[in-house]
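Researcher: For the annotation table, I need structure tokens for Fe2OG dioxygenase domain-containing protein. Please keep the output clean. Sequence:
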Amino acid sequence: MFVDSLSPCEAESLSLRSQHNSRAELLHTNHSNLIAMGGLSMDQSFVQAPEHRSKVTVAEATGVPLIDLSPLTSGDAAAAVDALAAEVGAASREWGFFLVTGHGVPAETVARATAAQRAFFALPAECKAAVRRSEAAPLGYYESEHTKNVRDWKEVFDLVMHEPTTPPAGGEVVYENKWPEDLPGFREALEEYMEALEELAFKLLELLARSLNLKPDRLHGFFKHQPTTFFRLNHYPPCPSPDLALGVGRHKDPGALTILYQDDVGGLDVRRRSDGEWVRVRCVPDSFIINVGDTMQVWSNDRYESAEHRVSVNSARERFSMPYFFNPAADAVVEPLGELVGEDEPPRYSAYSWGEFFSTKLSGNYKKLDVENLQIEHFKKKDLEA
Ligand SMILES: O=C(O)CCC(=O)C(=O)O
Ligand SMILES: [Fe+2]
């Protein structure tokens, strides 16, 4: 679908790629190297502090739970759904991460989205730059994300399913998708994917609510007006110094939950709760990786953990992933849920506005801030800290 008719950008991209292939042995020239590395060139800004670098081998996580969601779609008895909710609850408590199969997202929908993703990142730099993100219009292409003030070895494309009519926290920021020209089928493939993922996100939200003994639709209201959910395409080119740089530095996702699709290269590492070790999340065909975000941690009053994770890169293979960040609405106030606090269990966080929190975090991506980026720890009640 993407090669039927070639735009000037696509034609140039193909010609550059074939030059690149026929000169495979000459890859040491700077120009060819830069093409192979998605335009990124290694410099000091990518170098992690020694204690945050990835080891050459990271052990594969054996314990991250794999949950089959098919009881949700096969009309199984309520008891089967309850059992599923209990599994989701245990995984969220013990790991903050789990894999799901039987999720109901059609394989063709995923295949179309991944083909669109590869076609986009294969475009020449100037075509990607034409849809580049800016602080005033923060959706689109970007190749200079920083996590905790160190540059990530990746390029991204950000978009939303529902374009908000007003910015999440006032001001002049414009949240409009930027669609690349001359990439037939790109928009349709990603819109189809986002729609399927939204459906899955609400199913997971319901399971999480059930697992906390809440009404199944207890959390739905937080997602009603002006959703801030966004979807990202990630491309991690081969990196000449995987011992120094990371694809994404260590972080926690701030939203309610993240649904990630990854290819078969591997590189997502999660910090294991039991011993603090970094372990690699395995690649399971046709699965999604789910992680509980900071918002769910606050709602659950720390019953569930938003686990720290990062992406290691390698010098041989590029990697693609697609996180769908399921975030509350801009007007949501986030605080421990009333049903989960009481005299014996005081709320561990002060209430905060999701819209303000989110837009402050977002602006941290553009500037090297002097302070650590905004974290939910800032809302942790001081007298309850260990
Ligand atoms: O690419 C991945 O595996 C994870 C990316 C990630 O953690 C993020 O974008 O927040
Ligand atoms: Fe993440």
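Researcher: And a one-line annotation?
Model: Residues 251, 253, 309 surround fe (ii) ion (ligand 2) (CB under 6 Å).
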